[in-house]
Design brief:
The complex is a heterodimer of chains A (about 500) and B (about 60). Chain A is an alpha+beta fold and about 500 residues long. Chain A is about 40% helix and about 15% strand. Chain B contains 3 helices and no strands. Classes of the chains: A alpha+beta (about 500), B mainly alpha (about 60).
């Protein structure tokens, strides 16, 4: 039986402005501004971070492990998310969510967290250029930063099976989920010089499988850091996605990937379409093919376009759900919405793009670019086209172009407002968020799988949360409601 | 109910009835989208960053992840 697909999205936002235009300082200002405004003051606990662990159990050959920069600003929010400085970007990692729709909700709440932080920061600092953030993945000059998804996977699934099953999806889903990009920025495309690509990230991928995230980026990332019981869980860390402005796209991104992982757990890797013979070439070629018809040779000698792959994978997921499965991912109604949207986007990008310009980011962006170029009779190199590309991802409502193109929404604004403050009720994020809201002065630090309490007398008390499905409102809601302070909470939990 | 009337009318074209109905529907939708796009482009002219060249040149990020 497939296990619950607990999931979430981490987004590194592009950032400009601040003192001397230093992105590290600007990012720190944002995180501190958010904390200073009384939203949170709990630090992150780095005790359990092990980003160098490799799912293949191989020693590191090519480079040092990713560094955890513990000196940079780092906070845990009352909605269970983490908001911090990663390298030179402000990063929002959503709390653990139980379904794709919940994942979308907390990704959108993250945009509001950033927006709030920007407003507080800019309102209190008048000496430097205002800070602006962008929910995108590239600066158009060869620098890319990530939007990573995480999915809970059963530990006993062999990693090669995960690669075999999920790689075809990860390299082809850009036909409906890509955020679109003007031009190209790697040597790979010097000859082809595409005017537009489906996805921001595709051309940056250089390996099929690997541990890296910043150099030699792999289509399937092997970071083995489950943030939970390592005997039972694996966290699949997906680094090959674009940050989506379209709510439907974010929902389908999480839903399609989670559903296919559930199919893998229940049906095995053999039901999946064969890998392209050259996956890296395929992901790049698919990204630059606006006809969506260019095929790549697969390991079994057949040929598939990205669209063909998606068509097959949708059918696989649809049959799985039709057979009564899918509870590991979402309730039935949500699964139906997922399959319907996924299908409509897929048919739309091939047969009627205008019909999905309200859902597919690259289609919405391209329509805008083409319209603008035609109206002003611009050549392909005109900087205004690149400006539109960047400004599509501006999160300020008065500047964002994505907010103007008529993208369909799935969430009520009130729900997003609530998710800004409150954690999801159905994962351990509930326990984390409620504790931070209720006992902020008695918590020293928190991370994904534990919280450390300081009751004023030695020793500190660490509460482990090794199962992402424990610590829910159902299990601990009453207890948290009734515990007036951390000591009462720990006594009720039996850790004192 | 214009679409239903279309369905009732004998077609004088080579194509089957159904696609021509679909085409009418699509044309209507595209006209709507075209108007939307015109309005949208008016708006873009207003909100697009003033000096696009400088804005794009200054948008430089460090790699991340």
């Amino acid at each position: 039986m497939a296990i619950a697909k607990v999931l979430g999205i981490e987004t590194e936002y592009g950032i400009t402005g601040g003192p001397d235009g230093d992105p590290v300082i600007a990012s720190s200002i944002l995180v501190n501004a958010f904390a200073r405004n009384g939203e949170t003051k709990v630090n992150w606990d780095f005790g359990d971070e092990s980003p160098a662990n490799d799912a293949r159990h191989m020693p590191l050959l090519t480079s040092a492990a990713p560094m955890v920069e513990s000196h940079l600003a780092n906070t845990v929010l009352t909605n269970g998310a983490r908001f911090y400085v990663d390298h030179a970007h402000p990063e929002y990692s959503s709390p653990e969510c139980r379904t794709p729709l919940s994942g979308l909700l907390y990704d959108r709440a993250g945009e509001d967290v950033l927006l709030h932080a920007v407003r507080v920061a800019n309102a209190t600092s008048h000496d430097s250029p205002p800070i602006t953030v962008y929910k995108n993945n590239s600066d158009g000059k060869g620098n890319s930063y990530g939007t990573h998804e995480n999915y809970l996977v059963e530990r006993e699934i062999p990693f090669p099976d995960i690669v075999r099953a999920i790689a075809p999806h990860l390299l082809s889903r850009q036909v409906i989920l890509g955020a679109g990009k003007v031009g190209y920025e790697t040597e790979y495309f010097d000859d082809l010089s595409p005017r537009f690509q489906l996805a921001q990230r595709s051309e940056f991928f250089e390996e099929l499988v690997g541990l890296e995230t910043t150099l030699k980026r792999p289509i399937v990332n092997t970071r083995d850091e489950p943030h939970g019981d390592p005997e039972r869980f694996r966290r699949l860390h997906v680094i090959i996605g674009d940050a989506n402005m379209s709510e439907v796209a974010t929902f389908v991104k999480l839903g399609s990937t989670a559903l296919l992982l559930a199919v893998l757990e229940d049906r095995g890797a053999d039901v999946f379409p064969p890998m392209p013979r050259t996956p890296v070439r395929a992901v790049r070629a698919f990204g630059a093919d606006l006809t969506l018809r260019q095929g790549q040779e697969c390991v079994d000698g057949t040929t598939r376009s990205a669209w063909d792959y998606q068509d097959e994978l949708w059918t696989l997921a649809d049959r799985y759900v039709a057979g009564g499965d899918g509870a590991a991912v979402a309730p039935k109604a949500e699964l139906q919405l997922l399959l319907t949207q996924w299908r409509e986007m897929l048919d739309g990008v091939r047969d009627n793009r205008a019909a999905v310009a309200d859902r597919v980011d690259w289609v919405a962006k391209l329509r805008l670019l083409n319209g603008f170029q035609e109206r002003h009779n611009l050549n392909d190199e005109d900087p205004r086209l690149r400006a539109i590309d960047i400004q599509y991802h501006d999160i300020r409502p008065d500047k964002s172009l994505a907010r103007r193109v008529g993208l369909r929404t799935l969430l009520k604004p009130e729900a997003i407002g609530e998710a800004f403050h409150k954690p999801p009720s159905d994962t351990r994020a509930y326990f984390r968020g409620r504790c931070i809201d209720k006992y902020p002065n008695e918590i020293v630090a928190a991370n994904w799988d534990s919280i450390i309490f300081d009751l004023g007398v030695d020793p500190l008390h660490r509460v482990p949360m090794m199962d992402p499905l424990k610590g829910t409102a159902e299990l601990l809601g009453d207890l948290l409601d009734n515990a007036a302070n951390a000591e009462e909470l720990l006594r009720a939990l039996g850790t004192l | 109910m214009t679409e239903q009337e279309h369905i009732q009318k004998p077609s004088t074209e080579k194509n089957d009835e159904a696609p021509s109905v679909e085409l009418v529907a699509n044309t209507a939708k595209n006209e709507q989208l075209k108007n939307d796009l015109d309005n949208l482009l008016d708006e873009i002219d207003e909100v697009l960053e003033d000096n696009a060249e400088e804005f794009v040149r200054n948008y430089v990020q460090k790699g991340g992840e």
